[in-house]
Amino acid sequence: MTDLHTLQTTLLSAINTANDLTALDAVRVEALGKKGSVTALFNTLGSLPAEDRKAQGAVFNTLKEAITTALNTRKETLEAAALTAQLAAEAVDVSLPPLPLPKGTLHPITRVMEEVTAIFARQGFTVEVGPDIEDDFHNFTALNIPPEHPARQMHDTFYLEATSENGASQLLRTHTSPVQIRTLKEKQPPLRMLAMGRTFRCDSDMTHTPMFHQIEGLVIEEGVHFGHLKGTIENFLAEFFEIDDLKVRFRPSFFPFTEPSAEVDIGCKKSKESLQIGIGDDWLEILGCGMVHPNVLKAAGVDPATHQGFAFGMGVERLAMLKYGIPDLRAFFASDLRWLRHYGF
Ligand code: PHE
User: Fold this and answer.
1) pTM of the predicted structure, to 2 decimals
2) Which of 140, 217, 255, 277 would be 145's cystine partner, CB 3.0–4.6 Å?
3) Ligand 1: residue whose CA is nearest its atom 7
């Protein structure tokens, strides 16, 4: 019969010298596994005379318990050591000076969006988001542009082949106005919101890129009228262009989703070589706006009898070109590092 004392000593020493959890588990299997040395002892009990079994069983159990306890203790020690080592390896020295990495810059599009957000945030506007891939309802129908409406042609829409889950045709949003509908469906007025991001139209030449950016504004409150719209836009443009007495002109226009609608021009001086804002007798179109059409409110579940509001929309590239004197639209998306370093912030 195996010398129990020797077996215990050997196993305990193997346990206490196991260097990691894998080695320790190998010892466990060796001792307590199906074919383990301790398990084998128990298998001999059957061949003992019945009167000896109980006493011998107790002896084996004592050994088994000693081994189990030693295994658990060693396991805890090794786990703690592993954790300490991991923490040490992953430690970050926050006091280290930063590496001399080349500094990135903010793209003028990002910069303008941040500036516009800051101006409107002071007046309680929130920033809302909507998907680039829209459905027909949110991009057109809910904005009072029904299926056969000629305004759909003007948008040069990119349609997707795949339809949405409910079979509606999908498209790349042609403007940020669908976010008006999405937000109104979720939030109860009073509401002051901005929405900004990518928009898409199938158009590409010197002054158009198939992807461009818009900023949309929407205010829905009781008693809001055209005067509020005018004041909001005039203040915004003066602040954005940093010209206190900026000349601003509202021209009657048409958008299906606003009534009345206006296009807004700012005073400037155009010459062959340059364009200067804030001086001169010329005008430059800068944004579209109007009082929200009752059909739009209805489509978003708002009662036009109790609530009205105004909306406005503008192109971010145009704002950036004018404010920062960037001449070429297409360079915005060429990712030319020299351009990015020059015009970035
Ligand atoms: N969505 C319009 C466009 O893309 C702009 C706009 C927005 C006009 C809100 C009026 C009100 O041309």
Assistant:
1) 0.72
2) 140
3) 313
